[in-house]
Amino acid sequence: MAKPEDKTILVVDDEADAREYMAAMLEDAGFKVVLAANGEEALEHVRAAAPDFISLDLVMPLKSGIRFLHELRRNKQWAKIPFVIVTAHAGDDEGRDDLANILDGKTFSGPGFYLEKPVKAEVYVRYVCEQVGLAYDTLAPALPSSGLERARQELQDLLEHADESSVQEALRVLRGGRR
């Protein structure tokens, strides 16, 4: 049976914070993740080793998500790679028409699904799992449900190895400078 560590996900987004956030969600679920800041970088990664799934921003410099998809679909080997559009531009002039054409199948057979930023971890990882043939429910216990939960877990891990003065300093900061 396939496992997340057997699957490579290409995350394409020009916003470094969004790219890193999505990568962290996928890595927490056990996936191998490759990052690209635009469609041109994404094509280089696909040429080197085709991923199992692509998470794609729509509006990016150098090569937009739609231009990247056009090139992807022209290659028979890459045309079947599943993808999801992750965008902050679903309702604005920059992305609305491109997204509508993809979802309506006017441009090519699209995913029929997109996510608006900021994405929710569970929805995002669940969709990726479905597309690569994995059962999300088997991953759920290992996944933090939010960035806050992930931060709490990291803080707990750090506190386990911290000396007393570091713990006291952390408490002071968390109390807003109060003693």
What is the chain-wise order of helices and strands?
EHEHEHEHEHHH
What fraction strand? Answer: 5-15%
What is the count of distinct domains? 2
What's the pLDDT, averaged over the residues? 79
CATH arch. level architecture of the largest domain: 3-Layer(aba) Sandwich
Radius of gyration: 19 Å
Q: Assign the CATH superfamily of the largest domain.
A: Response regulator
Would you kindly provide a written description of the structure presented here, covering whatever features stand out?
The chain is α/β, with parallel strands linked by helices and 179 residues long. The chain folds into two domains: 4-140, Response regulator (Rossmann fold), CATH 3.40.50; 144-179, no CATH class. Helices cover 43% and strands 12% of the residues. It has a five-stranded parallel sheet with strand order 2-1-3-4-5, sandwiched between helices. Helix 3 links the parallel strand 3 (53-56) and strand 4 (83-87). The longest helix is centred in the C-terminal third of the chain and has 14 residues, at 147-160. It starts with 7 loop residues before the first strand and ends in a 5-residue tail after the last helix.
